[in-house]
Amino acid sequence: MLTVDLALAGLGVGAIAALAAVGLITSYRATGVFNLGFGALAMVIAYLLWQQVRVWDWPVVPAALFDVLVVAPVFGLLLERFVFRGLGRRGAGPAEMLAASLGVLVMLLGVAILTWGTESRLDPPALFGGPPIDLWGDATVSRAAVIELGVVVGVALLVAAVTRFTRFGADLRAVVDQRELAELTGVPADRVAAVGWAFGSMLAGLTGILLAPHLRLDPFGLTLLVLEIIGVAVVARLTSLPVAILVAVAIGVGQSELTRVQLTGRAQNLLQALQSNLFVVVLLLALLLLPRMVEVGARGTSPWTDPGARGRLPALWWLPYPLLLAAPLALGTEHLQSAQQVPALAIVFVSLVIVTGYAGQVSLGQAGFAGLGALIAASLVSGQFFGLPETPGLLALPLAALLVIPLGLLTGWPAIRRRGLALALTTFAVAAVVSRFVFAQPIFTTGLRLDHPWPFDDERAFYVLELLCLGLVLLLVRRLHQGRLGRMLVATRDSEGGAAASGVDVPNLKVFVFAVSAGVAALGGALLGMAGRAFDAQVFDPIQGLIWFAAVVVFGVDSAAGAVLAAALIVGLDSGTRPGMSVIVVGAGAVLLSRMPGGALATARRLWDSRPPESAPRAPVRLTARGEAVRARVRSRRPAEAPTGDGAGLPDAPAGGVS
Amino acid sequence: MPTALSLHGVRVSYGPVEALHGVDLAFPDGAVTALLGRNGAGRSTLLRTLAGLLTPTAGRIEWDGRDITRWTAAERARDGLALIPDGKGVFGGLSVRDNLTVFAGGATDITPALDAFPVLRKRLAQRAGTLSGGEQQMLAVSRALLRPSRVLLLDELSQGLAPRVVGQLYEVVTQLAAEKRAVVLVEQYAGEALRRADVAYVLRRGQVAFAGEPGELMTDGHVSLFD
Q1: A649 vs B contacts (CB less than 8 Å)
Q2: CB distance A623–B211 less than 8 Å?
Q3: Do residues A194 and A77 lie in contact, with contact meaning Cβ atoms separated by under 8 Å?
């Protein structure tokens, strides 16, 4: 095939990526929220269209118009009203907004899994069909690709015209920039923000409907693809729509052209991996190498989540935890096997508490570290780790954790200069690259075996081993959280500048925390693999990492006890109800974060400790002679309305005014 | 002087902590009122409550005889109540021109602001967040010049600014007050505000500790009110 033909073939992929990137950027500029749920909403709308056309036999075009123009915008309005308005009103930083959008993603994934299952649908309805367009010679181009490119350019022009040349555009940018000031200026901020959300959601729906026919429709695939296309938006620095379109088309064409290159042996495998995962590579490289993105909305250094006011802990608050964790020992083998996921998952969650809760460094990539822990443990046990002989499982556990620490150091390095959105995306990109270039490559995963380590072969004995590991990790966490190191971490979380000015070596502290957290996550991942007696790449999917992160935030990102509870809840719900139920519960909790500052546990503590508002004692008021006269005059005019207090202050009736 | 705006037994809380303990105040029309007090006295809370950004837990707010306690900030702003907040009075991510356009509420004529503060004319394409502190404050005050307002609330107008810039800002504010507006100046340090004011209040721990003429406050040895 000629190069031109390949380029034209790549145009289709480029057009789709351009549409998703334009949607992401426009939605971000219109709402001030980098909506990680954008891909999930696209996926749900694509599923809805599939349901309408394939199951209910609706005609495709009216159904698509209904979904894009009605369903998606209404969903955007609901998001604005019930999730983001509260956060916007209390001036939540971009990090908290990101957590809430993660909740939207997780909840929509749960809804899709519960409604349509996880199996792939191979027949998503296509909006644009017809034969390819003949160009010259034998060259043809997909009709759908041309139409999609036209849609993208049209949307970009419309957005540019509205934001630059209309009053609504100026109001919208004002609301995104500073909602409170916009209100003070008379701008109906709620209405303007609602329109922004409706439009952003409409673009998500359009993206899903146009993307689906090019893919197999399943909850994770489409969602993850849109997340990977974030790289295009990052190259465009989250601001330039023309750059986003050009970059997306260039990557699509480049991906297509790479199929011409033929290498041999492992190099060919690597090339194929690069070709099919070019968007992920662009995402990571863009985040590491390009200048900072142009972020909108609340600026500043607000911590990851609002910890809220602390309540008092009830007596013996810790008692349920050992009972909860020991209870499975009394269960039968089948239930015990399910319960074995709890301590392992709890260790992974505690790693998030260390890096995000204590140090304030957003990490969406813990699934990558956990998966590497499982993979390395399996490689060691199988004797496939760079020529090392077979290693006993009990030794492979700590070795796996130690060997992942260097990767934690590498991930911590970008964190030195990044925070908030940029750091969150970077850590997610690392997990996505590890997933695509390691977990998905047969060269690393074939012929591996993993089992309960000797002498903990028995189900109960292995569970006890897990509890011991969890106990050790909790002791480590306690050590990290208290004393000088704990104070340094909290100081860095709350104000990096202030911590540095106080003599804290902030860059090294950040790298250290990432390394420790990676090691702990790897230990949890290795245990998770041993509990399942195999390395399963699906368990460590990057999207799974996002769900884990949301779960930890919901229960209190700085609470190790919350992390243990979150693990128990996820495993309990999925084992006791339907798979996917935990995802819905976690997602619902995350979208309600604006109503529970600090997470569920902190909110429960505050409710436990709730007290009526304090009223300060009234100080004696010194009125001038004029003040006394005015007070006397006002009281004589309105005898029935005595002042609510002791008469502090001046006139309580404006009739006569102040003279 | 007729009263433009008044508070009756207003209480405001931040969670379990009450910041204003049943405040009664009146702000006269066509005059400058200075609202003074030390840090934490409740001055900014009171101003934000007047503007609709905080909702009282008790009491009511009246404006020209209408109860506006439940009005939103945007409704009050559209009816002519303008708060220039402390240090956050501009849209930092927008250009100066876009700021003025939003302030003007869609009107295209932004010349009154540019005439009052000529330095802004050279900065029209510049992002407001990159202006100096004084220029940002000038841009913020421009809102009162571009949109007809009947009550102007200014929070810490002079904070961190050079005396020359403060003088320039106060000149504009005095002109605005002369156009039949109620102007409320909130300042921690009394000097310039008292010189411009017709009425003065001092807040202390969420209550009114002094009410009267600025002259009395300057001469009667009320220094302890600021402790």
Answers
A1: 23-25, 201, 207-208, 211
A2: yes
A3: yes
